[in-house]
Each structure stands twice: as C-alpha cells, then as structure tokens.
Amino acid sequence: MFTQEAFEAALSGDESRLAGEAGPGGHVRVAGDWVLVAPDGAGKVVLGRRWHQGGVDVSRIPLPDGFRVREVAVDDGRFALTGADGRVVRGTPEQFTARPKLLDPELNPRHRQQVEEVFLMTHLLPERNREVVPDPPTADVGLGAAHVAEIARAGQVAVPLGGDEPVWVRFDCAGPEKVVELLPHARTLLASFERLGREAAAYVWARIIEDSDDDSDGDNDGDPGDTAIEDADKVGEDTEDDDTEDEIDEDEFLEHMVPTGIAVYLTGDFELHFEGASGTVYLDGYWPSVQFTADGTPVGVTIEA
Known about the structure:
- There is one protein chain.
- 34% of the residues are buried.
- The chain has a six-stranded mixed sheet.
- Helix 5 (145-154) crosses helix 6 (176-191).
- Strand 10 (261-264) and strand 11 form a beta hairpin.
- Helices cover 29% and strands 23% of the residues.
- The chain has eight helices and 13 strands.
C-alpha cells in the first residue's frame, strides 16, 4: 500500500495512483516536497517527503480515535485536516511528523485523551525541527518577563540554582506560543526542584531494590531502573576483591543522584534527568530520567544515553 512509485508520481504532478490506493473516500494533497494521504476509513494519515538525493521518506501519523478526516486542504505550505465533527487541525508537514513525548499508556490513564489533545495542538508545535543548542538563553528561577521572548524562541533555558552548573529546562516539541503557556508550570517545577530531585532519586532506588529482589527470585523482567547501573549486580551484595567490599548502598547512590534538568511535555507531564550519575553509579554515558505526571507524581524511569 502506498508505494514509493505512487508517492514519486504524486510529487511530479500525477496524484492518480495515490488517489486510487487511498480509496474512494480518501484524500491526496501536495505541498512542495511533501504529499499527504488520508486513506478512506483509516485511522491514520501518511506523509511522504521527497529527498533531494532521490526517493521518498514516508511517515505514518496515527489519528486519535475520535478524529476521522472529512477533508484535506493546503494553505501556504500547511495542511488543514477537517474532521467529520467539524474540528480542523492545521500544521506544517514538520509539525504533523513531530513526535511529542507522552507518558507510556501503562503509566498514564489519560493517555488516549492526551493523544487527542496533542494532535489538536499540532499548530503549536515548532514549525521546523529544533535542535538542542549548547548555549541556551539564561534566566533566573522566576523565568521573568524580560526573558520570555528569548525562551519562547529557543524552547529551552538554563537556570542557575546554586550548583556548579545551571539547570536546563527544555519544552519538548513546543512552539513559542506553547512555551509561553507552559512557563508558569515550569516556574512551579523549578521552585520545587530540590524536592522533586529527592523524590525521583528515592523512586529510582526503590525500583532498583524491587528489581534486585525479583532477580533473586528468578523473576527479573529487565527493569530500566538498573539496566545501566554501574556494577548493578553489586546492589545489596558484597563483592570480594582483595578482601574489600564493593557494595553500592543507598547513601552512595543518592549522593550521586542530583538532578540536572527538566523536560516539560506539552501535556504538563515532565521528566527529571540525572546526567551527573553517569560514570558514577551508572555506566559512563548513561543516566536515568524519571517521568512524572503533571501534579508531581513519579511514575516511571528510563535510561538515557
């Protein structure tokens, strides 16, 4: 379905093959080097992009359960999808193909609702792909009015909080308007940064101990909380080496678990990163991040690299 040849033909002016593959109620629209296909009755749209070196890169974008495409239009390089219920979602191809972070469904009872919310705010995502910059703008913990425009453009900010390095705050997949909307939430998180860090570190330690107990019972499912931990097998155990102990205990672990940054999701959920744990209690180049619901409840941990 939706062959490379059909995409290439549409981008060269012949949409008939894609239209045939999309079905009688489907839609095909071209905007520059992009073509969007909304198949008849499918819960997705498909975007193809022509690469200058040849070929077409294809992305499939799932639609929320409650959104069925009735019409597709193109306006100034933006696609506009009108649903059967009259709702319209607009965005550049880059906005439609962005992948905003959401908490995993098993951690998030609001996942289906959030999928729809994020889809409906497609126009608030960055219009072009935005990279993490090495020297983001700096602001005080209040993220005051003098810095708002600069933070909104960059989508990130460095905030000195008294440590050796400033804390970074990144607004995942948020365009300028959405960054401004999320700033009050970011201020609240920064004001509680130390407490959140302690709670996150304790959460990771509890997950490691829980998984260590499961492992001793032969029931380890590869929990992400400790897969990259330095000498993970030594947690709670003694290791003989010249008659010395090499045990990672809770105090040592928590000492190295100092948060270094916050990634704020479009939904207000967020994650705390602990890059300083890399090369100490975690293997060099790896560190944990702890996912929170917007109200500050830790619900998951992943390993970053």
